[in-house]
Amino acid sequence: MKTTVSRRTVLAGIGAAGAAAALAPRVALADKAAADEYLGKLTGGTAAQDGKVKLKLPQIAENGNTVQFTVTVDSPMTPENYVKTIHIVAEGNPAPGVASFHFTPTGKPEVTMRMRLSKTQDVRAVAMLSDGSVWQGSQEVKVTIGGCGG
Amino acid sequence: MPTPRVKIPGTAAKGEVFEIKATIDHDMESGQRKNKEGKPIPRKIINKFVVTYAGNEVFSADWHGAISANPYISFFLTATESGPIELKWMDDDGSVYTAGGAITVS
Fold it and tell me: What is the pTM of this model?
């Protein structure tokens, strides 16, 4: 049996795929923009450099309700040079803020907690140091079942 | 009443970095969920966590709706002197839950 595919069908298909492709990055950008705006308020607009911050997360989270993360920063934690604050931001959640940790020159800059992730997304950690510099690290997590309830 | 559970080492050498682990029973209702009638369930979370060591605030955290239920946290302090360590969790409804212990530094 001969299958006929009309020119019109093919073009409509391409059009739909194109529209979807054009739309998808725009949604992702909106999430990232909201996260950037949120972080900008917290950091006072200082641009974050890549490095010093490590975020340990599972690459694949089957249950988005409890995703364990560990954040560490390369810092001696002396009174002259320590991490003041670490902000955790989930770019794809309904609200980007997850947590902010405030340190004093003691112990080491390492915190472990568990968070909710609504879908597959990048999670970012931004560290503000006592010398005024701002550093960041990020990690993508693929989420199988979203953790925002419904 | 949420029950906090805290793990603090009883002793440490001066200058040693030690870990504190803590959890508390709490739904951490994010405000994003809806009930069976489709109405939003109001937010009720622990929004702040504060740690004092020998009377000084040494660590604190702001928590948002994305923190999982029954929040668990692990963090580190340096043993500087013997004294009490107090952990406080502040609820959206104004409640404050406290737990702690003491460390002997030699």
Answer: 0.86
